[in-house]
Design a protein that fits this description.
The protein is about 40% helix and about 20% strand. By secondary structure, it is α/β, with parallel strands linked by helices. It holds the Pfam family Trans_reg_C.
């Protein structure tokens, strides 16, 4: 049974979230503050996080979470009353996997949580190797010639996806859908920015890349290293 942690300071909303998630067959641990939930997160399969929390905001906590090597891969659904596009983008860029604006239906809540679980509970291998590049999927860690790469969560996700599917060309729109998710509100320029950042981490020359190749008019691919 998947374990969902809920962090929501309004007790009525918290009880409603717990009720509907448990009724759908999920195990739920619910907390009023981020600090109170820390121990439970170690065994969580997904986090439902409210933006506005007492003390540390949900957005600030999410940023800290994405910097934690043990929790950076935890899928997060952010809840908020903020409906402005700029605020939704801020939440997603801070590391949220999905975004739900209050008020919302119980059916949509459950559907989005289950979609997060399906997205992360895949049959992808735990380790990917391509020449001197090694990616530990379960630990969310990438190493180049033995040295650890200091990647953001999205940089790691993009690198892992392209390495897993090395040799295949992906367009920007497809990468947004496969790595960021269909609900991501940013534009295709986001992919270009992340590829540029990854090349800097990898020491890749864009004119003669060893890893991330640009295929003119089509997109990007991970170069296949000879055995």
């Amino acid at each position: 049974m998947s374990h969902i942690v809920v962090i929501e300071d309004e007790h009525t909303v918290r009880d409603v979230l717990r009720f509907h998630l448990e009724r759908s067959g999920l195990r739920v641990s619910a907390f009023e503050t981020a600090g109170a939930a820390l121990d439970a997160l170690a065994s969580a399969d997904a986090l439902v996080l409210d933006w506005m929390l007492p003390g540390e905001s949900g957005l600030s906590f999410l940023r800290r979470l994405r910097g934690d090597s043990d929790l950076r891969r935890l899928p997060v659904l952010m809840l908020t009353a903020r409906a402005a596009e700029a605020e939704r983008v801020e939440g997603l860029e801070s590391g949220a996997d999905d975004y739900l604006t209050k008020p919302f239906s119980a059916a949509e809540l459950v559907a989005r949580v289950r979609a997060l679980l399906r997205r992360t509970q895949t049959d992808a291998p735990n380790s990917i190797e391509n020449g001197p590049l090694t990616i530990d999927v379960s630990a969310a860690e990438a190493r180049l010639r033995g040295g650890r790469l200091n990647l953001t969560r999205r940089e790691f996700d993009l690198l892992a996806f392209l390495a897993l599917n090395r040799g295949r060309v992906y367009g920007r729109a497809e990468l947004l859908d496969r790595v960021w998710g269909a609900d991501f509100l940013g534009g295709e320029r986001t992919v270009d920015q992340h590829v540029t950042q990854l090349r800097a981490h990898l020491g890749d020359d864009p004119q003669a890349p060893q890893f991330l190749e640009t295929v003119r008019g089509k997109g990007y691919r991970m170069r296949v290293w000879d055995a």
